[in-house]
Structure formats: structure tokens, C-alpha cells
# Entry
Amino acid sequence: EAGVVQSPRYKIIEKKQPVAFWCNPISGHNTLYWYLQNLGQGPELLIRYENEEAVDDSQLPKDRFSAERLKGVDSTLKIQPAELGDSAVYLCASSLGPPGEYGYTFGSGTRLTVV
Amino acid sequence: QKEVEQDPGPLSVPEGAIVSLNCTYSNSAFQYFMWYRQYSRKGPELLMYTYSSGNKEDGRFTAQVDKSSKYISLFIRDSQPSDSATYLCAMSSLGSSASKIIFGSGTRLSIRP
# Structure
């Protein structure tokens, strides 16, 4: 079974440019998460989807970040415009059910560098 | 104060040693306790999962939860160089907020051959 697939693995962009990350969750996992991980820190939730619906986006900086999950499968996270402080690893995860019971399966992440 | 506190390390021990990793937390609503292992340039992977208080053993790994002290531990016996990674504790509560996991900042562990 394929795991959570993310692309690209690495991205370097200049500040003020747009950038997009893509995630394909495990088949059958209705819940999808985008997490941000800064160097030396644990992951922090940006947004959670139940199928197509964003049910928790309270931590998403909506002035520059947006996300979508069309047809309740793949998801895209976008930043426009990117700032230097956005340099981090962006992790996608999916879960079969409540993560307290099932845990997450993470992708390998997209490492973003804004210069 | 963060909801979950974890010593960042780094922690370096010789091969074969017993490793103890710990986290404290402040939210008494947490009921699910997890340990994730993260290798360099990889996403975290679920290592151990415990519900409420008690111990859980899986091979060389033992997870302990002491809810009265708001303290959780992961023990690694007969540590191997392949155990070198960052270990993240994680917690979740019941109810709607069960759909969110709060992570510690991670402890970097290095096992010396």
C-alpha cells in the first residue's frame, strides 16, 4: 500500500513569490491534515479536512495561505505571497478515523526555503 | 506555557544502553498518548500508542503514562544505532478535539556504535 505522497520534496523560491504543495493521502483515509514543522520543533496543525470540508482551519494564516481538497482525495496547500518566515517543512498526514485512536500517517514533507 | 513539554536533547548514549525519553503535559483532558519517531528528512512515523494510564510494551520499546503526574515516558532497551532519530511525544483528548494531535518539540537521540 502506498503511503501519503507529497510533492515536491524540496522547493526554493524568492520572497513574495507563490508556491503550492500537493498531497495524495492513503486510499480510504477521509481525514487529511496539513502540518507545519519548523526546525527543532514538533509539527503544528494548519488545517484539517473531513472529506472535502475544512473542519479546523483556525491556525491557517488566511491572509496568505489557502488550501483545497477537491473530491475529498488530493489536497493542495498554497502560499501567496511567501515570506522569509515561511521557510519550514510542510507535512501532510491522513488518518482512517479519530487520530487519538488511529494515529496519523505522515508523508515525507515538502521542505520550503524562501530566500 | 506549552501544552506539551519535551526536552530537545540531544541525547547521546552507547549502543546497548537503555534510553529513557520523557514528556510532561498540562491538559488533563488528554487521553491518548503516542510516540512518533522521525528520521532525518522524513515524516514522523507512529511508534507506540497508549490509551489513558498504564504501560504498553512492543519489542524493545515500552511506553508509560502517569496521568496523575501528567508525565509520559518511552523506554528503549538494547538501543541500536538504527534507533538514532528524533522522538516526538504526542497527545490527544476525547470529543471533537480528538481529531487533533498536539506534539512535543521532539528529542534528538543518537546511539553511538
Remarks:
- Residues 30 and 97 of chain B are 10 Å apart (CA to CA).
